[in-house]
């Protein structure tokens, strides 16, 4: 059996600690990273695509990605409650540490002193089994003012002197709710103006590009590195019809308002189906590939963080990174935006939240739904939703749908929230 097929079956993961995609004996060589970009003023050359979160990514798959030349790894203490950092520590054993760029994050909530921040970073270092973190990020500061946290900056100054942290950065995907913070764009532009942050992690995709482009351009003007998350706005919309049928089979009584909400969802699902047929596409993978190429086509994007769960995920991403965005793909994305833009609830948007009479944190719940639909993210998303102290989406079932009426993109958000509640609670 060819070594590639051997690993696809999962047997290689059992027998070998660090499988490689390198082919031997004259067999076809699989794609490798061909492009490395300079990560702003850090001066580091990083792979055009990186390992994002590492949550749910088996160590063997991560090793295969590293063997293929992927050098950027993004993670955080909260990803899998530290298990992601542990897995990364195993994957990088025996490798040239200087050839990798590892970014991690610590939660600042509740930390009241420089020493507490330092201790959090030391714990991450232990889990990662490394002497230093290339970039330590402040995750999701709610406001521009929060960027000035002196406990964080004093701790970073100390850790830099000790050689434990090389650079600092900020990640942001919008506030928990409009009432609890400022927009991603405002906070990250504030980070650019602050001058102390070297790298940014932000949302940017072909359906949600304006805010991202503003931040990316501002960062480029100051030679600040930019890394991208949530680059694929398609999710599993093409499987929506099947999931709607599952909800109907659950046996719950569906009132008039819920029927109307589900009818809107079914109409949305039909749009996706129709788009595939109209554009002669065999499956949604062609659009997803084009979506990733769109991000990489921006010369000011330094690396694109992706989630890998299988060896096949790695191979597909390597092939995407090896080819540019064609004119046909660019036109296809433009057509999709025009015809099916309502399929996507924009991350960190929050425009509809102020219209909700029950104060449901739409942005947060839809982010948890994104985690749920991501490979191996179901348990993590359900845990986050269970701990959510704000009103949950069960309030949306009998609501008149004011959020849907307020959405400028025509997203059937009430139906998506109802579906999110069903998924995240196994209701």
Brief descriptors of the model:
427 residues, alpha/beta, 8-stranded parallel beta barrel, disordered N terminus
How would you sum up this structure, described in words?
This protein is α/β, with parallel strands linked by helices and 427 residues long. It is built from 17 helices and 10 strands. The protein has helices at residues 3-8, 11-15, 59-67, 83-91, 114-128, 150-162, 184-194, 210-221, 240-249, 256-278, 285-296, 311-321, 327-340, 362-373, 378-386, 402-406, 413-425; strands at 36-38, 45-47, 49-52, 72-74, 101-105, 133-139, 165-171, 199-203, 225-229, 303-306. The protein has an 8-stranded parallel beta barrel with strand order 3-4-5-6-7-8-9-10, surrounded by 6 helices. It has a two-stranded antiparallel sheet with strand order 1-2. Strand 7 (165-171), helix 7 (184-194) and strand 8 (199-203) form a beta-alpha-beta unit. Helix 7 runs parallel beside helix 8 (210-221), helix 14 (362-373) runs antiparallel to helix 15 and helix 14 packs across helix 17 (413-425). The model is unreliable at 1-20 and 22-28 (pLDDT under 50).
Short account of what is shown:
This protein has 427 residues and is α/β, with parallel strands linked by helices. Helices cover 44% and strands 11% of the residues.
Biggest beta sheet attributes: 8 strands, parallel, barrel
Structural class: alpha/beta
Strand order of the largest sheet: 3-4-5-6-7-8-9-10
Residue windows where pLDDT falls under 50 for at least 5 positions: 1-20, 22-28
Shape: globular
> What is the radius of gyration?
22 Å
Helix content: 40-55%
Q: Please give the count of helices.
A: 17
Distance between the termini: 44 Å
- E-strand count: 10
The amount of beta strand, in percent, is 5-15%
List the helices and strands in order.
HHEEEHEHEHEHEHEHEHHHEHHHHHH
- Overall mean pLDDT score? 82
């Amino acid at each position: 059996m060819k070594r590639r097929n051997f690993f696809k079956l999962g047997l290689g993961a059992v027998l070998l600690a660090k499988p490689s995609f390198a082919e031997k004996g004259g067999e076809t060589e699989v794609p490798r990273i061909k492009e490395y970009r300079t990560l702003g003023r850090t001066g580091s050359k990083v792979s055009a695509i990186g390992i994002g979160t590492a949550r749910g990514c088996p160590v063997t798959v991560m090793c295969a990605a590293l063997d293929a030349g992927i050098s950027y790894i993004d993670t955080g203490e909260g990803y899998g409650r530290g298990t992601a950092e542990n897995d990364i520590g195993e994957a990088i054993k025996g490798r040239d540490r200087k050839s990798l760029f590892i970014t991690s994050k610590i939660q600042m909530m509740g930390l009241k002193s420089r020493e507490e921040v330092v201790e959090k970073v030391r714990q991450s270092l232990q889990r990662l089994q490394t002497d230093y973190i290339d970039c330590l990020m402040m995750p999701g500061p709610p406001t521009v003012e929060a960027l000035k946290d002196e406990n964080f900056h004093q701790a970073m100054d100390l850790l830099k002197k000790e050689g434990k942290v090389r650079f600092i950065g900020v990640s942001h995907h919008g506030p928990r709710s409009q009432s609890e913070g400022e927009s991603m764009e405002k906070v990250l532009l504030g980070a650019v103006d602050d001058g102390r942050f070297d790298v940014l992690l932000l949302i940017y995709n072909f359906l949600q590009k304006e805010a991202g482009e503003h931040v990316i351009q501002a960062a480029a003007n100051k030679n600040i590195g930019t890394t991208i998350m949530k680059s694929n706005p398609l999710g599993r919309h093409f499987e929506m019809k099947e999931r709607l049928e599952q909800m109907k089979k659950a046996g719950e009584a569906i009132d008039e308002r819920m029927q109307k909400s589900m009818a809107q969802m079914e109409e949305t699902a039909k749009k996706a189906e129709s788009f595939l047929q109209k554009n002669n596409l065999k499956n949604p993978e062609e659009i997803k590939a084009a979506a990733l190429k769109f991000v990489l086509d921006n010369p000011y994007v330094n690396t694109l963080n992706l989630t890998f769960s299988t060896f096949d995920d790695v191979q597909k991403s390597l092939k995407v990174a090896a080819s540019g965005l064609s004119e046909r793909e660019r036109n296809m994305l433009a057509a999709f935006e025009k015809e099916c833009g309502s399929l996507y609830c924009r991350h960190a948007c929050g425009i509809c939240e102020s219209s909700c009479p029950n104060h449901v944190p739409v942005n947060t719940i839809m982010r948890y739904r994104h985690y749920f639909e991501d490979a191996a993210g179901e348990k993590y998303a359900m845990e986050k939703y269970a701990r959510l102290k704000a009103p949950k989406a069960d309030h949306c079932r009998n609501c008149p749908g004011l959020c849907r009426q307020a959405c400028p993109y025509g997203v059937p958000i009430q139906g998506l929230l109802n579906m999110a509640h069903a998924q995240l609670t196994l209701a």
